[in-house]
Write a structure and sequence with these properties.
This protein is an alpha+beta fold and 442 residues long. It has 5 domains: 95 residues, no CATH class; 69 residues, no CATH class; 46 residues, Membrane-bound Lytic Murein Transglycosylase D, Chain A; 74 residues, Resuscitation-promoting factor rpfb fold (Single Sheet), CATH 2.20.230.10; 108 residues, Glucose Permease (Domain IIA). Helices cover 20% and strands 41% of the residues. Strands 17, 20, 21, 22, 23, 24, 25, 26, 27 and 28 form a 10-stranded antiparallel beta sheet that branches. Strands 3, 5, 6 and 8 form a 4-stranded antiparallel beta sheet that branches. Strands 7-11-14-15 form a 4-stranded antiparallel beta sheet, covered by helices on one side. A hairpin with a 5-residue loop joins strand 22 and strand 23. The structure holds zinc ion. The site of zinc ion (ZN) has 5 residues, from loops.
């Protein structure tokens, strides 16, 4: 803020002296020192009739003294006051009426401060102290600490000017105006699926206007939040710029490790994960208390996160000698592996009722579960070490591709999908890609 020159002090006595000079001049012009009535004029307009100059001067002096005392600061009449002795037979006022008329008709100004916002006078203060108190209070309200820089989005100017004492703002009034503007805002509570565009249309306004009414608002409206859809804009936008350090958790990841000593399809957590901790330095910009920007300046890891480690078994729980494949269903074999009808039967057929559950012959991972031409609905399971089993003609799937299954787990239901003459399970077994007789392992 700047002050133009030294504050001009017009004290009550100087007011009187000035007034008396004017009176003398007026009397000279009229060419008559004596009259029955004294007209009191402001800028040439008569506002009262006194019994004498003395009475008028005293009434004005009393009024000015009272205003000065009330404001605790020098005041002066707004306009040029003259006392003219006139001959017309007007009824002169008594002391009480004269005081009352002068009080009503005269306005007083003081050497105050006008604050312009973007060139428009918005605040009028009694003096520099009050102006400074207002600016300080506004800055303090939005300051987050010593390293916080405060600025205004608008151009703020302070000018030393004569201000009508009736129009002076208190700091409290100015704070309210600065933050709320003039006029009453209309509030809308955000509902699901509200957008700024819809709200602008519904309230006969624009998205830009909504953004200026609600500093910091963006398209991510959250149901339940309040938004101003009309009304006044704050007169001032206080921009706070500061750095802040926050401690944040670092999430942990999961690592998978194959383990040939664990049975296929089993998992074992060998290390529980733990979250880490980091110090993040942010640069924050807030407008009238609402954060509008937050960017990472620096990150310091205090404690690294520790990953969770899971072992996944790859060991087959059967062997061609000791261990055995489990029967997918119990039933009689209606067609064996090998030559058939001049061709080759690639697996064995096990008769079972429609809808009977089919179980995995060994633990493994589902390679596919889909329709495969003449096989119909077929589940293919890889058991590791080059061993694969296939289950065809299902009426329904019980598993999905990628899923891990344990031995005996239901993987589907017996059906007649694909080329069949009746409900059965066609079971195939492949060893390193070559068809093998499953009965050697069952
Ligand atoms: Zn078959």
């Amino acid at each position: 803020m700047t002050r133009k020159g030294k504050q001009k002090r017009i004290s009550y006595p100087s007011l009187l002296v000035g007034t008396m000079v004017i009176i003398g001049f007026a009397a000279f012009i009229l060419g008559s020192g004596v009259g029955k009535v004294c007209a009191v004029t402001v800028n040439g307009k008569t506002i009262a009739y006194a019994q004498s100059k003395g009475q008028a001067q005293e009434a004005l002096a009393k009024l000015a003294a009272r205003k000065t005392k009330e404001l605790a600061q020098d005041v002066m009449v707004d306009g040029k006051v003259e006392f003219k002795t006139v001959r017309e037979s007007e009824n002169a006022y008594d002391d009480k009426k004269l005081a009352s008329v002068l009080d009503n008709e005269l306005s007083f100004v003081t050497e105050g401060v006008v604050v312009n916002i973007n060139g428009t006078p918005q605040f009028r203060f009694k003096n520099k102290d009050v102006t400074d108190r207002f600016i300080k209070q506004l800055r303090n309200k939005y300051s987050t600490g010593e390293n916080c820089k405060i600025s205004f989005a608008e151009k703020v100017e302070t000018l030393n000017q004569k201000v009508n004492i009736e129009k002076l703002n208190t700091v409290e009034e100015a704070m309210r105006l600065a933050e709320q503007g003039r006029g009453q805002p209309e509030i809308h509570i955000i509902e699901e699926n509200d957008t700024l565009w819809d709200l602008a249309v519904a309230n006969n306004t624009t998205v830009d206007r909504l953004k200026s009414l609600n500093p910091g608002v963006d398209e991510n409206l959250r149901p339940g939040d309040e938004i101003k859809v009309s009304g006044s804009t704050p007169l001032l936008t206080v921009i706070a710029s500061y750095e802040t350090i926050e401690q944040e958790k670092i999430p942990f990841g999961t690592q998978y490790r194959s383990d040939a000593s664990l049975p296929m399809g089993t998992r074992k957590i060998i290390q529980q994960g733990t979250e880490g901790l980091k110090k993040v330095t942010y640069k924050v910009i807030a407008k009238n208390g609402k954060i509008t920007e937050k960017t990472v300046l620096d990150e310091n890891i205090i404690e690294k996160s520790v990953p969770r480690i899971i072992k996944q078994g790859t060991k087959l729980s059967y062997s061609s000698r000791g261990g055995r494949l489990a029967w997918p269903v119990s039933g009689s074999i209606t067609s064996r592996f090998g030559p058939r009808w001049g061709g080759k039967h690639r697996g064995i057929d096990i008769a079972a009722g429609y809808g009977v559950p089919i179980r995995a012959a060994a633990p493994g991972r589902v390679v596919s579960a889909n329709w495969q031409g003449g096989y119909g609905r077929m589940v293919v399971i890889s058991h590791g070490n080059g061993i694969v089993t296939r289950y065809a003609h299902m009426s329904a799937f019980g598993v999905q591709k990628g899923q891990t299954v344990s031995k005996g787990q239901i993987i589907g239901k017996v059906g007649t999908s694909g080329n069949t003459t009746g409900p059965h399970v066609h079971l195939e077994m492949l060893k390193n890609g070559a068809q093998t007789n499953p009965l050697n392992y069952l």
